[in-house]
Amino acid sequence: MKWLVVLGLVTLSECLVRVPLMKVKSMRENLQENGMLKEYLEKYPYSPVKFLSKDQKKNVTYESLSNFLDLAYVGLISIGTPPQKFKVVFDTGSADLWVPSIFCYSESCDKHRRFNPQNSSTFKLPPGNLRTVKLNYGSGDIMGIVVSDTVKIGDLEDISQTFVLSTQEDSVFRFFTEFDGILGLAYPDLGQAGGTPVFDNIWKKGRISENLFAFYLSNGGKGDSMLMLGGVDHSYYSGELRWVPLTKQQYWQVALDSISMNGTIIACHDGCQAILDTGSSVVNGPNACVLNIQNVIHAHQSFNEVIWGLHALKNQMSQPSLPFLQQYVIDCNTTTHLPDIVFVIGGVNYPVPARSYIRKVAFNTCVSTFDSFPDTMFNSNTWILGDVFLRLYFSVYDRANNRVGLASAI
């Protein structure tokens, strides 16, 4: 019996697929360095309230949580036969897979790898009329066509996977992104292109042993960041996994009990919601709540040349600032004495120290990683926990039991 258990563990470990992830410079950082961040934010004011509203209906087209601006971790996949490689963001805030095509003549496509269907023997168009689709993102739309081909992630081969080939990308700013496309890992209901999402396909086809996946986002600890498909490598975390049931099966959404500092609740006083989003590197929350946190940590709004660059400063003089363009600057020395901000989920404290919620950017300046979205249109009390939180906590996304597991990352 003992040997059967050992053999079973070996079999399960062989079914665990590890996909290395690389941390790249985010679009926000690239735009800051080029003095274009203010211009970008004025054109694409990111507002998650569209899809966090309590008034959501089934006939609403939901946008992805991703806004390109803060995507920072990418991994390699290949599409077609022979394989064509792409850098993609594995994103728990969306459900579709898309990459640029050779038919895309937008300026942003020129910088990225583009899929050539003529070079793939396994490429297929769906039967019937050519189907076009528009994927809605906070940073502009992706227009493309729905196709299918073999997708390979690590050692996993997903035959006849539906995905989108972009033919137009409605944002010249995507020139400043370090990834080619996005592979969504949210629930199928969020899919905008139709077809079965990648993760659902590899599970249905029996390519993985467990209906779950996990993320380790490196913070200078164990080493390289990693996506795990079909199992969990327990060496990436310490202590036990704490499981939290989902409150809604679209995004990876859970109940958030409160947000506190030094034992005093500073946000989410009566409970609220939180979405775990690997497609963001910040913590988003309702405007009034985030403003309170900025005040507590002594962060102040700034649009000076240190943050925006001289080019942006010139634009500022002729254009009024909007509430959602705020960058909050903080003294870099405060990381040594500001207390943790504690997120309480399922009765468990998850502290985020100042060294995590304060980020050093260009020109030796530090900014708060708390970001707000306008909350005047809808009564939304939902937070989006991005990499600021997920670098500290190993996260498991359990589709079989509709729950999330969290533990301290190594």
Short overview:
The chain has 410 residues and is of the alpha+beta class. The chain is built from ten helices and 27 strands. Strands 2-3-8-4-7-6 form a six-stranded mixed beta barrel. A six-stranded mixed sheet has the order 12-13-16-25-17-24. It has a four-stranded antiparallel sheet with strand order 15-14-20-21.
Give the topology, please:
Elements: H1 2-15, E1 17-23, H2 27-33, H3 37-43, H4 49-52, E2 73-79, E3 84-91, E4 97-100, H5 107-110, E5 132-137, E6 140-153, E7 156-169, E8 181-184, H6 198-204, E9 212-216, E10 225-229, E11 237-245, E12 248-249, E13 252-256, E14 258-261, E15 264-267, E16 272-276, E17 283-286, H7 287-296, E18 300-301, H8 305-318, E19 328-330, E20 341-345, E21 348-352, H9 354-357, E22 358-361, E23 365-368, E24 370-373, E25 382-385, H10 387-390, E26 393-398, E27 403-409
Parallel strand pairs: 3-8, 4-7, 16-25, 17-24
Antiparallel strand pairs: 1-2, 1-10, 2-3, 2-6, 4-8, 5-6, 6-7, 9-10, 9-26, 11-27, 12-13, 13-16, 14-15, 14-20, 17-25, 18-19, 19-23, 20-21, 22-23, 26-27
Domain Peptidase A1: 73-407
Family: Belongs to the peptidase A1 family.
Signal peptide: 1-15
